[in-house]
Amino acid sequence: MRAEDMDLMRGLPLFSGVNLSLVESMLRCAYLQRFPAHVELVREGEPADFLHVVVDGSVEVYSEYRDRETTVAVLGPGHSFIVAAVILDRIYLKSARALTPAKVLLIPADAVREAFLNDGAFARAMALEVATAYRSVVKELKNQKLRSSLERLSNWLLIQESISQTPGQIELPFDKKILASRLGMVPEVLSRSFAALQPYGVSVSGSSVRLGDREALIRLAHPTLTIDDLQS
């Protein structure tokens, strides 16, 4: 890894407060790699050899069963995967691939486990990653089991609008096939759901979505802190 890359990696949230010599040790044996879109990074069922940290771009975490596939999460810069498998030295329960061109830091699992045992700040960072992932899984389980497809799409749109740079306007961060899978539906249901939201002021043009009546959409979606708050 180049010296300038090492400097950038030291600033990752994962290493905040961690003993500098330990950070240096992990980075010396780590790899910073660029991947084109659609390249597989992790394969479900294989041993957890590396902790992956997204530095740039986005990564799709997904799972397959027989002829079916579902998107579990889409991760951006700063997020690690798959922490539990690395800490427990178990197989990956999910797969991952680059959704866009991505830069990913790969830290050998043995080095991660050694740091976890020997540095309290790093152990805390790992615990926070696992806790955040657990809460995300619980919220997603509730989202899938308690809501209709229309409610899931409505709440997802409201979340995306809240982080958008342009109020009332959203640019889909990935294609509609990925969005459908992320929301637990097939593409045909997603299309029908978008059509059903037209009376609530939602219009779609390619990858652009306009929310013309946010209050009407909120009344339909019924967002709740225990599912939709990104910070909880």
Entry keywords:
232 residues; alpha+beta; Jelly Rolls; Arc Repressor Mutant, subunit A; 2 domains; four-stranded antiparallel β-sheet; 10 helices; 44% helix; elongated
CATH class of the largest domain: Mainly Beta
Strand content: 15-25%
The H-and-E topology, N to C, reads as: HHEEEEEEHEEHHHEHHEEHH
What is the terminal-to-terminal distance? Answer: 36 Å
Summarize the structure.
With 232 residues, this protein is of the alpha+beta class. It has ten helices and eleven strands. 44% of the residues lie in helices and 23% in strands.
Detailed description of the structure:
The protein has helices at 3-10, 20-28, 83-88, 109-118, 120-146, 149-162, 176-182, 187-196, 214-221, 225-228, and strands spanning 31-35, 40-42, 50-56, 59-65, 68-75, 80-81, 95-98, 102-108, 169-171, 202-205, 208-211. The protein is an alpha+beta fold. Strand 10 and strand 11 form a beta hairpin. 28% of the residues are buried.
